[in-house]
Fold:
Amino acid sequence: MLQTPPSDPIDLFNTWFQKAGESEPNDPNAMTLATVDGQGRPSARIVLLKGIHDGKFVFFTNLESRKGRELAENHHVALCFHWKSLHLQVRIEGTATKVSDQEADAYFTTRAVGSQIGAWASKQSHPLSDRSDLEEALAAYSLKFGDDHIPRPPYWSGFAVLPEIIEFWEEQPFRLHNRLVYFHENDTWQTIKLYP
Ligand SMILES: Cc1cc2nc3c(=O)[nH]c(=O)nc-3n(C[C@H](O)[C@H](O)[C@H](O)COP(=O)(O)O)c2cc1C
Structure:
């Protein structure tokens, strides 16, 4: 699939992503997100890709979570997709910026009510002494909002990752895989191949 690559890596990503949607048993949009803290110490976790807008990879989260706090200190990130059924990997390096309030609001309204209440009730990544504390918070917010429109919590939003480097990896026999790297230079995408 890497023999005649398109000039725009987003086109290639979309081709692979569509195939992943057809063949992965679940969460083809799951990607590892790596961030670093103010001291340069890395951490990684899975988040869900919720769209590619203007060439940027968008995900949503709690701004006061560990990743949210790290992104406030250092906006350099790495993303990694592994589609096991297809034997494909995509690695992305770039910078993350918070999406607009309008974009975050628009996505928040599409979430299930339970997820909206959960966003209010969960102090993501903070210590939880007992599961019942979370359940009480869920019940309290359910009561508070009732059947009303549930607004987006001020500490919940999204990030858009502008890619600087995108590497496509395709499994080949005897571990002699194909690797194609797109990098941005003079406002255009260039490509280079790497040894496996
Ligand atoms: C399949 C999957 C999808 C997930 N999607 C998200 C997501 O979109 N946003 C999010 O904040 N956490 C998501 N999580 C939870 C994160 O992996 C992580 O536990 C949480 O965000 C806290 O991370 P942090 O403490 O590093 O901030 C997902 C986990 C899995 C396994």
Remarks:
- Strands lie at 30-36, 42-48, 51-53, 56-62, 76-83, 88-98, 156-170, 178-185, 188-193.
